[in-house]
Amino acid sequence: MEDYRSEEEQVEALKRWWDDNGRSTLAGIALALVGAFGWQGWQEYSQGQNEAASDLYQELLEAAAGAGQNPAQLGVAERLAAQIKTDYSGSAYAIFAALQAARLAVQEGDLETAESELRWVLAEADSGSDSALVAQQRLARVVASQGDTEGALALLEVTGENPYAASYAMAEGDILLSAGRDSEALAAYELARQVASEGTQVPPLTALEQKIASLKPAEPREISVAVSDPLPAVAQEAEAPADAEEETP
Amino acid sequence: MLQDIRQNVQGTAAKVVVWVIVVSFALFGIESILLGGSSSGVAEVNGEEISPMEVQQVVNTQQRQLISMFGENIDPAMLDEQRLSNQALQSIIGRRLLVQSATEMNLAVSDTEMGRLISGMEQFQINGQFSPELYKSTLAQAGYTPASFKQTLQQDILVNQLRSGLPGSEFSTPAERELAARIVAEQRDIRYLTVPLAAVEAGVSVSDEEIAAYYNANESSFYSDESVTLSYIELRASDFTAPVDEDDLLAMYEQEKSGYQYQTENRVSHILLTQGEDESDADYAARIADVQKQLNEGGDFAALAESASDDIGSASAGGDLGYSAGDAFPEAMEEAIASLELNTVSEPVATDAGTHFIVVTERREGEAPSFAEMRPELEQRVQERESQAALLSTVETLRDLAFNAQSLAGPATELELEVRTSDPVTRNQAEGLFANPALLAAAFSEDVLEMGHNSEVFELAPDHFVALRVEEHREPELQPLESVRDEIAVTLRDQQARAAVARIAEQAVARLRAGGSVEAVAEALGFEWQVEIGAQRDSGMLNPALADAAFALRAPPEGERVADYTMTPTGDALVYEVSRVAPGKLGELPAARQAQISQLVDGEHGVLVQEEFRRELREQADITVY
């Protein structure tokens, strides 16, 4: 421990310390300020980017909603999707825009464009993310619709735990049933139904149920009554007037 | 002190600490250090708290909706806070997860977009224009502040964007639509005949032996319901109606006459002169005299008010102050007003505000209706008030007396009330006074039923009270055969009739399978037959039971027929024959039906994706419910 005998000595010591360390202290403070403001600026910049992408995406959704009736709206939606994909690539909005573009393309019957949009999503999105898993399942369906059953089924094979097991199984069932592989299709549909039934908020899936029913037809029941057996008394009474009517004319 | 700090700062560890503090202040502000870590939430979702208020708000909304759906007589169990708050908490957690996921994906909403949406909402518009006042008042009514509303709306948009991105971008491929159409729009030619239950019912007879046998075999279903016979006191305000004292009515009439709506109202203008702070008394007096002079010379009051009055509020309106019924202005002014002729200027009147010249510009003479005219209304009001007061004081006394008494008769005698006896009341009573859920719950409560106490006095409505006690408790007991004979006869007759219908149906199916046509078989048996060519599963043309059965059946080989029957819930048998089965063809369907099928397919894919996304979020999340 040092001891300072007077104020002057203390001031002197401070001055000395400042001469030795002043420059680096100032530099440190400046660096911290630059860091803090830089970080804030970056935050603001990326927030601004996200908001701009969001605005465009809202416009895209509005245009896409009217695209079914109005071809002009379809054009607007496609242009907006392309703009979001280039200007804000790497954002979730770019992925969503591509998924919307794929939807519009399928709606228009343009499966090639749909395929390339979905492949773009697969390349852009982190593998294993929700968007990637969903896009892969959709890609399989588009590929199947183009006629490549085996390619489609291969896309639906996911190693490890797949949180989208039910949607994958339903897609698989459709592909197999379209290819005439009924028993495999039934197994896939039943898996989809089972996973879906574990959910709390799943409404009845009419089409899925009807597909399963059509793959498991009921056999006509056995009838033990013979044609010659007597009818219950009441019905025979009902029969009599019908016969009588026939005989009257 | 300074010295200690200076010395301690020398150490490397201390420097690190100081810099950590500097940087964290710079980045996060002081609140993150001062306010971190305190917890009062009911649950935590990935480190974010859910506050009790948030849950309460959802519960309140839910309760209001339930009450408006089921009315005031709603079962209190449905409004149970505990049950509702569990549901509310689950839905808040679900939504919170979606918002967090959207935020993690860096989804955002710009202020301009928020503004555009809010100003575009019809409920905030007057004549198509956004009204800030309406906006604020509408929000306040719904329990929002502008900030909390904006936050909710912003979250709605984020969740909506997330939804549109994954499940909302779902589609149906041409192959899937073809496939769905093949099955959903499959056509079958169906001919069928109906064996109505009514045709056999009349001929069915049930013997006493059969009834006795059924009674013995199903004893357990013939126990009577548990019931209680109640004695009760019912109080209504109308029971306390008494004649009204004429003097009371007169007093009330006098009071009513002087009431606000029968007062004379004066519309008043004034010119106010106020002494300025640096104005001498003499100058002030001169100013007053000047105005007085101009008025005396017939100067226009309104014009003078505008130029000379110190009351800025009224000056531009010609001095107009609006109406007074004698209580709006200071006493000195009101006195002057009362004695003024219409459109005559008063002498100067001094009040605390200064000196006024007053004019009455309009006078509405108030005239009260006569006593005879008002009597019926007054009488009714007095009677209602008095009977309600009598009711409430009786109820209070009854509460005290009934709490300690061993019966209702004692308190009733004391208060000169009538004790009545109910018919037997069951636990699921649906009719009469005791269908009221509160009374029913009390009648079967431990306190009243088992301990034999009087119930509390229940308020069913402000003018309707009931207290009860159990006089007789009947446990479920086996009813004698005689009292359930008819019930059994009906059951057995129905069973036998259905069995007879089924036998006829089997006979008809056997005939169809032996080669008979539906027409011939129906005619031979004497029943109606119908045909539906190209029926579809959900076209609504067929009885639902028939549609289910006929489409579930394995399709017959080309050119052949298959016959079977099904029973409807009402007991008729439908004997049918499926002949032609044609898979649906998308291209041949009307456009609307095609669109419907395409929606069906992408809807079901979307539902699954949505559900699986939600489930995934929940499984990955760190959720703690306290």
Instruction: Catalogue the unreliable spans of chain B.
Output: none
Mean pLDDT of chain A: 86
Helix content of chain A: over 70%
How would you classify the quaternary structure? heterodimer
Query: What's the alpha carbon Rg of chain B, rounded to whole Å?
Result: 42 Å
Overall structural class of chain A, as computed from helix and strand content, comes to mainly alpha
Briefly note the structural class of the backbone of chain B.
alpha+beta
Count of alpha/pi helices of chain A: 10
Q: What is the terminal separation of chain A in angstroms? A: 137 Å
Short description:
Chain B: Residues 263-362 form the PpiC domain. Chain A is built from ten helices and no strands.
Structural features, described:
The complex is a heterodimer of chains A (249) and B (626). Chain A is mostly helical and 249 residues long. Chain A contains ten helices and no strands. In chain A, helix 4 runs antiparallel to helix 5. Chain A is elongated, with a radius of gyration of 36 Å. In chain B, 25% of the residues are buried. Chain B is 51% helix and 16% strand. Chain B has 626 residues and is an alpha+beta fold. At the A-B interface, helix 1, helix 3, helix 5, helix 7 and helix 8 of A face helix 2, helix 8, helix 9, helix 21 and helix 22 of B. Chain B: Keywords: Cell inner membrane, Cell membrane, Chaperone, Isomerase, Membrane, Rotamase, Transmembrane, Transmembrane helix. Chain B: Belongs to the PpiD chaperone family. Chain B: This is Periplasmic chaperone PpiD.
